[in-house]
Each structure stands twice: as C-alpha cells, then as structure tokens.
Give the backbone structure.
Amino acid sequence: MLYTINFHDNADAAPDIRPRYMQKHLAFLSENSATIRAAGPLKEGDGTVKSGLWVVEVESIDQAWALVKADPFWPAGLRDTVEIKHWAQVFADGQALV
C-alpha cells in the first residue's frame, strides 16, 4: 500500500540539525529506496524548509512509522509532528490507474 508521510519540523530544534544530519538522512533514504519511493522538503514561499514529504510503499501504517523512527532526523529532534495517510494513487505517467 502507498502512504504519504508529512513531516513538520520542530520550531525549537537547533538550526544546525538539518545540515548536520543531512548525509546520514540521505544515506538512510538510499538504503530504504525499495520502500521510500519519493522524498523531499516542502519549501515555504521564501524558500525556507519547515516540513517534508515522503511517499512510501509498505504493508501497514506500523511499517511506515518504523521508517519514520529509523530516520536519523527523528532521534536528532528535527521532527515535531508527523502525519501518515494511506494514499490511493489514481493517476500516473499520463494514465488513469483505476
């Protein structure tokens, strides 16, 4: 099943957390590329990053949560809130999927 995972950053987190853990975070994404199909920051109008989005393919929401908690950004304290939702993809590559 496909899930979207929307992350919101902790406003009180140290400003150097993202750059300090970015290489570990990117390595984690690469190591989990079989399940994390897409990932990236969501930029504000001024270009700042305060949130991010993943699209993952896993069997359950528990597996999605396990990915979230294994990401180096999680124990570092960057993430504040996380929203995980089942996503029913109905269109891709110019074609309806239903």
Q: What stands out?
A: The longest strand covers residues 49-57.
